[in-house]
Every structure is written in C-alpha cells, then in structure tokens.
Amino acid sequence: MGINKQTDEQAEIQIGPTELGMVRFFVRGEAFEIPMDFTPDEAQEIAAEIEAAAALARENKAGKR
Question: Could you report how far apart the first and last alpha carbons of the chain are, in Å?
C-alpha cells in the first residue's frame, strides 16, 4: 500500500514521553500494536516533516478548488 492509496483500515496513535527519555509513538489497530521509540531530536525531525506535509496538503487542497 502506498501513501496515496485509500483504505478503510483504522488505527489510533498515542504520542508521549517514556521513563527512559524517549518519545514513543504507539500505533494500535484492530489486529496490531506498534510501539516506536525515538530520541527527542528524532521526534523533533518527525514533527518538522509532519508540519511540512501538512503545508503541502493544504496547498494541494487549495489548488483543487
């Protein structure tokens, strides 16, 4: 499955700090659980990528009006 393929699959994500000083992304679906730990610096890089993707998504949506 690619990033542009639609799906009916549902999952939830929780994000928070761990006791060991990591940032955990915990993704849970009906048949899976995926814990992913990142250093604070890695988490900030991911946050910047999410912000950049959100800005591009807004541009794409505005261009389709």
Answer: 27
